[in-house]
Amino acid sequence: MMPREKWTDERLDDLQAEMRTGFVRVDGEIKELRREMNARFDSMKNSIDARFDAMNRNMIAGFFVIVTAIVSRQRRPHRQHRSLNAQAVAPTQRSRFCSYISLRISSIP
User: Which pairs from 7-13 meet CB under 8 Å and 24+ separation?
Assistant: First the structure.
């Protein structure tokens, strides 16, 4: 058996052809994966956009609620403490209201 001393031109050409076909195959697989990933991202984009839109609406609504609460708190006149007479009147008014409601309810056929 003789040891190989040199690569022949034919063997180098065969190796080069195999490598080219291998790289072409790998490039095709990478392009296919890229297409699949882009399709998945495009399908997810609409749902992600909808979630961000909903979050944006909720944040704006919360901002307006907070601002309204602050403004109404500042515009409200300070309440003075009720006198003892006002506290004594409150249960009477409450009992009148309850009796009025009970009369209305009892008059419903």
Answer: none
